[in-house]
Structure formats: C-alpha cells, structure tokens
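As promised in the previous annual report, we have extended the structural survey to additional targets. Below is the entry for E-selectin.
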Amino acid sequence: MFGFALMLRAAFIHIGLLMYLRVILVDVEGWTYGYSNTTMTWNDSRKWCQQNYTDIVMIHNENVTRFLEKLLPRRSSSYYWIGLKKNNGNWTWVSHRRIAEYQPWAADEPNNIKSNENCVEMYITESNNNGKWNDEGCEKNKLPVCHKAQCSNNPCTDREDCIEQVNNFTCVCKAGLSGPRCETAVSCEKLSKPSHGWMECSGLYGNHLLNSSCQFICAAGFKLSGTADLHCNSSGAWNAPPPTCAVACYPILLFGGGLMNCTESHDTYKSTCRVQCPPGHLLLGFVEFTCRSDGTWTSSFPLMCASEQFHF
Ligand SMILES: *[C@@H]1O[C@H](CO)[C@@H](O)[C@H](O)[C@H]1NC(C)=O
Ligand SMILES: *[C@@H]1O[C@H](CO)[C@@H](O)[C@H](O)[C@H]1NC(C)=O
Ligand SMILES: *[C@@H]1O[C@H](CO)[C@@H](O)[C@H](O)[C@H]1NC(C)=O
Ligand SMILES: *[C@@H]1O[C@H](CO)[C@@H](O)[C@H](O)[C@H]1NC(C)=O
Ligand SMILES: *[C@@H]1O[C@H](CO)[C@@H](O)[C@H](O)[C@H]1NC(C)=O
Ligand SMILES: *[C@@H]1O[C@H](CO)[C@@H](O)[C@H](O)[C@H]1NC(C)=O
Ligand SMILES: *[C@@H]1O[C@H](CO)[C@@H](O)[C@H](O)[C@H]1NC(C)=O
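The corresponding structure token record, generated without further manual editing, is:
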C-alpha cells in the first residue's frame, strides 16, 4: 500500500515537471496592450485602437487590471476609455458582444448621472479608485487603451490551441490529444463489421482514434438500421451506437383508404407503423405493428378499413 502511494506520488511529480517544462518552452509573448497620450471620444478611441492594435481593450479579470495599472501613465487626471458599452441596459464587451462578468466599478457607480452615460472609463489614480470603472458620456475625450491578440499569429503547432493570457499566451493540446507533444489521441471503442454488411474506417490519427470515422454498408436484401457514418469524438465516444443490417420488411398493403403512419425508415428492423381508418370505417387487423429482424411484421396481413355498414 505504502509502495503504491509512493509510485503514485512519483507519477504526479513527473506529470507536473512535464507540464512545467512545456509552459516554459511554448510561452513567448501574448496579449499586448497599448494606449495613446492623446485624448479622444470613445468612438475615435475604438477606431484608433483598430488601426494600431486589434481593438479597444477588454478587461476580463483582476490580473489584466493589475497589469494595466502598471502600464498606463498616471497623471493628475488619467481617464482611459475601455471597450465596454451599455447595450439594452447590459454592460457588453464591444469586441465579442458578450456581457461582462468581471465589473470592478468605483463606489456608487455606474450611476448614469447625466442619463447618457453609455461608455466606460477606467481610473488610473493614486486613490482607492485606481483601476476602477465609471460610466461616462461617450462623446467625452479620454485616453484610449487597446489590446493586440497574439494568437492570431498562430504560434502553436497544429495539434495545439492557443490561449491568450495577460501579456502572454499558452499552447494547450486540442481536445482529445494529450502528452508532452500532444502526440496521444484519445481512443474510441473498437468496432467490428456488422453481420450481413461491411465497415470501412479511416482517420488522421489512426482507426478508432480521435476524429476517425467508420462507414457502414449492408449486403443486398438487408437494410441498415441506425447511423451509417460514425465519428469518434474528443471524449473517446462514438457519436452514435454502431448500426445493424437486417432483412428489409416487405411493403404493407392497406385496403379501404386508411392512413398509415410509420417511423422514418418504414421498412427497416424496429420500424413501427400505425394505421388509422377514415371515419365510419373499422380496421380489420392490428392497429400497430413493428418490423422484425427477419424481415417479417409483427402482424398478419393484408389490412383493411371496412365500412361499418358492411356486414359479414
Ligand atoms: C509567460 O508566462 C511564463 C509562465 O507562465 C513566464 O515564465 C514568461 O516569463 C511569460 N512571458 C512574458 C513575456 O510575460
Ligand atoms: C506617454 O507619455 C509618457 C510621459 O508623459 C511617456 O512616458 C510615454 O512613453 C508616452 N506613451 C506613449 C504611448 O506615447
Ligand atoms: C492571475 O494570475 C495568477 C498568477 O499568475 C494566476 O494564478 C491566476 O489564475 C490568474 N487569474 C486569472 C483570473 O486569470
Ligand atoms: C440584458 O439583460 C437582461 C437581464 O439580465 C436580459 O433579459 C436581456 O436579454 C439582456 N439583453 C441583451 C441584449 O442581451
Ligand atoms: C459612435 O458610432 C456609432 C456607430 O458606429 C454611432 O451610432 C454613434 O452615433 C457614434 N457616437 C458618437 C457620439 O459619435
Ligand atoms: C477534430 O475535428 C474537429 C471538427 O472537424 C476539429 O475542429 C478539430 O480541430 C479536430 N481535432 C484535431 C485534434 O485534429
Ligand atoms: C404520425 O405519428 C407521429 C408520432 O406519433 C405524429 O407526431 C404524427 O402527427 C403522425 N402523423 C400523422 C399524419 O398522423
């Protein structure tokens, strides 16, 4: 027991070390931030940012706030426009139009005191309000703060996703890949060919592995029941259960003008049909029947909708 615990501990240290090395190796520089020393309206600030960086800044957490507090020059009065605007009463990041979750307002803000305060400024000051926000009229002149996305340069490998961080980025393995070089693809359960049919599989990382697919075809006289094209997803599961090949049920004859309502594939294994006769008619036969795997229906035929006036 003790030995097992030690082994487990060693394994964790090993994984930890690999992850640490990985971060050091791939991290260079990420989101970068910039500002102008010239004041302008909120609209002009956004335009200026889009011309010189990627867009007007988004501040998603405390770490970005702390970073900007150090970056931005602090004058007697330093008011900076950030990329947040009021949209139907919700404070929304203009870059991706999502409502802000992190909202470090100054005390008693936002107060919309002049009833047109639809833009947001950040204070850079010696006071307690350093890094805090205030709602303001968008036509006021303030200093723009911008950011530039680094992941757009695609610094990661084709097996990795890039994640923007504060003045940094990291490369993380795409969903379904793992290992120090993301070389291990997640595996789905091995499938075998259905009886009375064929299966053909292929995939970038190998058969039955992440993003591979398998196609199913049934022999003549048999119909496929289920999904003909399966895909192995990043959680290691197929998108649907493997299909089966079963004898197709023969067509049903219905006399007397009734309505037959069958499940989508009307003649494959497990297909179910219901019969409805017109008003004033009686059904001679079963109301509901299902296609068996041997190609017969769970009912006797033919069916008939007979007029109630009809006497036997
Ligand atoms: C990026 O992050 C790593 C660790 O997370 C750090 O070692 C590195 O110095 C950072 N790079 C910059 C430019 O901040
Ligand atoms: C803005 O002005 C400060 C000094 O007032 C200077 O240190 C800084 O480099 C200037 N920044 C830009 C982006 O021009
Ligand atoms: C902020 O940075 C610290 C240290 O770098 C990190 O542990 C933490 O997860 C970061 N917080 C957010 C919200 O990104
Ligand atoms: C604004 O927020 C309210 C409630 O939080 C929500 O019902 C509404 O749909 C939001 N408006 C927009 C444009 O997202
Ligand atoms: C800012 O630009 C938007 C459209 O981009 C416009 O509807 C709005 O009137 C402008 N605001 C000001 C104050 O110029
Ligand atoms: C798997 O396929 C999806 C959808 O086609 C794609 O977005 C994703 O990048 C692929 N994953 C890998 C690791 O290739
Ligand atoms: C056929 O059956 C389905 C499921 O019971 C039902 O939703 C549908 O309305 C029926 N169609 C007709 C034409 O009766």
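The first helix runs from residue 2 to 26. Residues 1-29 have pLDDT under 50 and may be disordered. These points will be discussed at the next consortium meeting with the crystallography subgroup.
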